[in-house]
Design brief:
The protein is of the alpha/beta class. The chain has helices at about 20-30, 40-55, 75-85, 105-120, 135-145, 160-170, 185-190, 225-235, 240-255; strands spanning about 5, 30-35, 60-65, 90-100, 125-130, 150-155, 170-175, 200.
């Protein structure tokens, strides 16, 4: 059986309150033996840590403040995170900027994002970036942080090949490809043909962005093979190659 890593999954979300442990087991049974849990904010952090503690071989946690959780208290929140960082943290995130959800704290989002990129560089950790209607703002921050050699992944990447090439100028960056690649007419299904497999991380973003044929249902990490299959088809390569290369990509980036 192929082995996969889901590099972005929120199985600790309230939508899994009844069966989170079973969702982890179903993923393992489907060959998704490792999962990265990006952090959102303090409201769900305990649920994330508790679920991860039950599967220490399979789950790796991150620490960060999601852009839609940024408000006037972002600095306090992040200083608290900095104090709790330890060797068990796989990445800083998810961070980034989201101008679709709200523009109310856009300045704070930018400051909190830059704080997290700098923190990740100091700790030699990768960054998980959430970017929604904010590509230029994100690139501005990466430009300022470039001398520190930030690295990481643009999660739920839906940009053009030009955006991908611009991203590569900022160093060691990957794109997270998820369920959207399986949607009919999705632009990323075409773009993915031009993105080297060595730069792709597989992710579900569970419970959201469910791949076909489960579109409309709750998403879970066990659906990673549907995403791998579509990438293989688009690139004209085998699913085994997609599994092998993306698993190696994730091991490298998250040091797992
Ligand atoms: Ni997420």
């Amino acid at each position: 059986m192929n082995r996969y890593i889901d590099t972005h999954t929120h199985l600790y979300d309230e939508m899994f309150s009844d069966d989170a442990e079973n969702a982890v087991r179903r993923a393992i049974d489907a060959g998704v033996t490792q999962m990265i849990f990006p952090d959102i904010d303090a409201s769900s952090r305990k649920a994330m840590m508790d679920l991860a503690a039950k599967f220490p071989e399979n789950i790796h946690t991150c620490l960060g403040l999601h852009p839609t959780s940024v408000d006037g208290k972002w600095r306090e929140n992040l200083e608290e995170i900095e104090e709790t960082l330890d060797g068990g943290t796989a990445a800083i995130g998810e961070t980034g900027m989201d101008c679709y959800w709200s523009k109310e704290f856009v300045k704070e989002q930018e400051e909190a994002f830059e704080f997290q990129v700098r923190l990740a560089c100091r700790k030699n950790l990768p960054v998980i970036i959430h970017s929604r209607e904010a590509t230029e703002l994100i690139f501005n921050v990466l430009e300022r942080c470039k001398p520190l050699h930030p690295r990481g992944v643009f999660h739920a990447f839906s940009g053009s090949i030009e955006t991908f090439r611009q991203m590569e100028k900022y160093g060691d960056w990957y794109v997270g490809i998820g369920g959207v690649v399986t949607f009919k007419k999705a632009g990323i299904a075409e773009t993915v043909k031009q993105i080297p497999l060595e730069r792709i991380q597989l992710e579900t973003d569970s419970p959201y962005l469910t791949p076909a044929p489960h579109r409309g249902e709750r998403n879970e990490s066990g659906y990673i093979p549907f995403i791998a299959e579509k990438i293989a088809m688009q690139k004209g390569i085998s699913i085994e190659e997609v599994a092998e290369v993306t698993t190696s990509n994730a091991r490298k980036l998250f040091n797992i």
